[in-house]
Design goal:
Elements lengths: L4 H9 L5 E5 L2 H10 L1 H6 L2 E5 L12 E7 L8 H8 L3 E11 L10 H7 L3 E8 L2 E7 L2
Parallel strand pairs: 1-2, 3-4
Antiparallel strand pairs: 4-6, 5-6
């Protein structure tokens, strides 16, 4: 979740439910918590220190998982994506966003999601980047 800018944008756009974020860096969790303090206080935002290898959330906790500019640094991305699947509800969606700074090539991303057991995998072009979208069958 980095310094929490994306969390802040999502929290301002979501009209029901809640937003959660995870980052391995204590400093990033601190910055994100400071930026989103008001939403944390209302319970609309939950931020935790953790990693994709060990998601600190209950199974079935989310209907959508979003990661931006992170998959390219995960060791064994298909394994990490398989570890994300349990926190999604049945039919839950995953969105992996990549900005030009990520240097993530488009080739192979859909195959990585498919290898991790996701379905209806597709790429969407974005201004300055792309997003891989799929769902948990």
């Amino acid at each position: 979740m980095g310094p929490g800018v994306g969390i802040e944008l999502l929290a301002s756009a979501v009209t029901s439910g809640s937003i959660a974020g995870v980052d391995p860096s204590e400093e990033m969790v601190r910055q994100a918590a400071a930026r989103n303090a008001a939403m944390i206080k209302t319970g609309a935002v939950d931020l935790r220190q953790g990693t994709v290898e060990s998601m600190p959330f209950e199974d079935g906790a989310f209907d959508t998982v979003l990661a931006i500019d992170s998959m390219q640094v995960w060791p064994d991305a298909p394994a990490r994506l398989r570890e994300i699947r349990p926190v999604l509800t049945g039919g839950g969606r995953v969105a992996l966003g990549f900005t030009p700074g990520s240097r993530q090539p488009r080739t192979g991303v859909t195959g990585t999601l498919s290898a991790a057991g996701f379905a209806e995998v597709r790429l969407a072009d974005l201004a300055g980047g792309f997003c891989a979208l799929a769902h948990k069958p």
